[in-house]
Design goal:
Radius of gyration: 22 Å
Shape: elongated
Distance between the termini: 35 Å
Largest sheet: 5 strands, antiparallel
Oligomer: single chain
Number of helices: 5
Order of helices and strands: EEEEHHHEEEHH
Number of strands: 7
Structural class: alpha+beta
Length: about 150
Protein backbone atom coordinates (compact mmCIF):
# COMPACT_ATOMS: atom_id res chain seq x y z
CA UNK A 1 0.00 0.00 0.00
CA UNK A 2 1.33 3.44 -0.83
CA UNK A 3 0.29 5.14 2.40
CA UNK A 4 2.36 3.23 4.92
CA UNK A 5 2.69 5.14 8.19
CA UNK A 6 6.09 3.67 8.97
CA UNK A 7 7.93 5.51 6.21
CA UNK A 8 11.55 6.09 7.18
CA UNK A 9 12.71 9.55 8.16
CA UNK A 10 14.74 11.58 5.67
CA UNK A 11 16.90 14.65 6.23
CA UNK A 12 17.75 17.56 3.97
CA UNK A 13 21.38 18.58 4.53
CA UNK A 14 22.61 22.05 3.53
CA UNK A 15 19.40 22.53 1.50
CA UNK A 16 20.80 20.29 -1.22
CA UNK A 17 21.39 16.66 -0.21
CA UNK A 18 18.71 14.28 1.04
CA UNK A 19 19.97 11.67 3.49
CA UNK A 20 17.93 8.47 3.69
CA UNK A 21 19.32 6.49 6.64
CA UNK A 22 17.14 3.42 6.10
CA UNK A 23 18.29 3.19 2.48
CA UNK A 24 21.88 4.15 3.32
CA UNK A 25 21.75 6.72 0.55
CA UNK A 26 22.61 10.35 -0.14
CA UNK A 27 20.77 12.08 -2.99
CA UNK A 28 21.35 15.50 -4.55
CA UNK A 29 17.84 16.90 -4.82
CA UNK A 30 18.69 19.04 -7.86
CA UNK A 31 20.73 16.66 -10.02
CA UNK A 32 19.32 13.37 -8.66
CA UNK A 33 22.91 12.10 -8.38
CA UNK A 34 23.20 9.62 -5.55
CA UNK A 35 25.78 7.95 -3.37
CA UNK A 36 25.29 4.68 -1.53
CA UNK A 37 27.00 4.55 1.85
CA UNK A 38 27.82 1.68 4.16
CA UNK A 39 25.61 0.92 7.13
CA UNK A 40 28.10 2.18 9.73
CA UNK A 41 28.72 5.41 7.80
CA UNK A 42 24.97 5.92 7.64
CA UNK A 43 24.65 5.33 11.39
CA UNK A 44 27.49 7.76 12.14
CA UNK A 45 25.86 10.45 10.00
CA UNK A 46 22.47 9.81 11.58
CA UNK A 47 23.92 10.15 15.09
CA UNK A 48 25.68 13.39 14.16
CA UNK A 49 22.45 14.75 12.69
CA UNK A 50 20.44 13.78 15.76
CA UNK A 51 23.05 15.62 17.82
CA UNK A 52 23.34 18.63 15.51
CA UNK A 53 25.81 21.20 16.90
CA UNK A 54 26.92 18.88 19.73
CA UNK A 55 30.48 17.57 19.83
CA UNK A 56 30.34 13.77 19.65
CA UNK A 57 33.33 11.71 20.70
CA UNK A 58 34.78 9.05 18.45
CA UNK A 59 33.90 6.47 21.08
CA UNK A 60 30.22 7.52 21.12
CA UNK A 61 30.06 7.12 17.34
CA UNK A 62 31.84 3.78 17.47
CA UNK A 63 29.39 2.46 20.06
CA UNK A 64 26.38 3.79 18.12
CA UNK A 65 27.47 2.52 14.70
CA UNK A 66 29.21 -0.73 15.59
CA UNK A 67 27.37 -1.64 18.80
CA UNK A 68 29.05 -4.62 20.52
CA UNK A 69 31.81 -4.75 17.90
CA UNK A 70 33.03 -1.21 18.60
CA UNK A 71 36.12 -2.40 20.49
CA UNK A 72 37.29 -4.30 17.41
CA UNK A 73 37.24 -1.20 15.17
CA UNK A 74 40.42 0.84 14.85
CA UNK A 75 40.29 4.63 14.66
CA UNK A 76 41.82 4.34 11.19
CA UNK A 77 38.87 2.23 9.99
CA UNK A 78 36.47 4.62 11.71
CA UNK A 79 37.98 7.62 9.91
CA UNK A 80 37.78 5.79 6.57
CA UNK A 81 34.00 5.70 7.06
CA UNK A 82 33.95 9.43 7.88
CA UNK A 83 36.14 10.08 4.82
CA UNK A 84 33.67 8.13 2.68
CA UNK A 85 30.89 10.45 3.87
CA UNK A 86 32.97 13.54 3.08
CA UNK A 87 33.78 12.19 -0.40
CA UNK A 88 30.09 11.44 -0.94
CA UNK A 89 29.11 15.00 -0.05
CA UNK A 90 31.81 16.36 -2.38
CA UNK A 91 30.67 14.07 -5.20
CA UNK A 92 27.14 15.40 -4.76
CA UNK A 93 28.38 18.96 -5.13
CA UNK A 94 28.44 20.21 -1.55
CA UNK A 95 31.24 22.70 -1.12
CA UNK A 96 30.67 23.26 2.60
CA UNK A 97 32.42 21.00 5.11
CA UNK A 98 29.49 19.11 6.62
CA UNK A 99 31.33 17.06 9.26
CA UNK A 100 34.01 18.88 11.25
CA UNK A 101 36.72 16.99 13.14
CA UNK A 102 37.91 18.52 16.40
CA UNK A 103 41.33 16.92 16.97
CA UNK A 104 41.47 14.59 19.97
CA UNK A 105 37.88 15.50 20.89
CA UNK A 106 35.43 14.23 18.28
CA UNK A 107 33.17 15.26 15.42
CA UNK A 108 30.36 17.75 14.96
CA UNK A 109 27.96 19.10 12.38
CA UNK A 110 27.77 22.78 13.26
CA UNK A 111 24.58 24.88 13.25
CA UNK A 112 25.72 26.80 10.15
CA UNK A 113 24.86 23.61 8.23
CA UNK A 114 21.08 23.59 7.93
CA UNK A 115 19.51 20.19 8.52
CA UNK A 116 15.80 19.76 8.02
CA UNK A 117 13.88 16.65 8.94
CA UNK A 118 11.60 15.95 6.01
CA UNK A 119 8.22 15.48 7.56
CA UNK A 120 5.73 12.82 6.67
CA UNK A 121 3.52 15.53 5.17
CA UNK A 122 5.58 15.27 2.00
CA UNK A 123 4.90 11.54 1.92
CA UNK A 124 1.20 12.13 2.49
CA UNK A 125 1.09 14.54 -0.45
CA UNK A 126 2.78 11.98 -2.69
CA UNK A 127 0.39 9.30 -1.43
CA UNK A 128 -2.61 11.55 -2.13
CA UNK A 129 -1.39 12.11 -5.69
CA UNK A 130 -0.96 8.36 -6.21
CA UNK A 131 -4.52 7.77 -5.02
CA UNK A 132 -5.80 10.48 -7.36
CA UNK A 133 -4.00 8.84 -10.31
CA UNK A 134 -5.55 5.48 -9.39
CA UNK A 135 -9.03 7.04 -9.26
CA UNK A 136 -8.57 8.62 -12.68
CA UNK A 137 -7.33 5.32 -14.15
CA UNK A 138 -10.19 3.40 -12.60
CA UNK A 139 -12.68 5.94 -13.96
CA UNK A 140 -11.18 5.50 -17.42
CA UNK A 141 -11.45 1.72 -17.22
CA UNK A 142 -15.08 1.95 -16.09
CA UNK A 143 -15.89 4.46 -18.84
CA UNK A 144 -14.25 2.35 -21.53
CA UNK A 145 -15.99 -0.80 -20.33
CA UNK A 146 -19.35 0.67 -19.33
CA UNK A 147 -21.13 -1.03 -22.21
CA UNK A 148 -20.03 -4.41 -20.89
CA UNK A 149 -21.25 -3.56 -17.39
CA UNK A 150 -24.56 -1.97 -18.47
CA UNK A 151 -25.71 -4.44 -21.11
CA UNK A 152 -28.42 -6.89 -20.00
Amino acid sequence: MCCEHSEPVKYLIDNEVIFMPAEQRLLNKSTQAEVLIKKQASLCLLYLIKNHNILITQNELLIYAWDNQHRNISFNVFYQFILSLRKGFAFLGLKTQIITTIPRKGLVIYNNIPITRLEKMMSLCICYLKVQVLIVRLSQVIYLNKSRFLSP
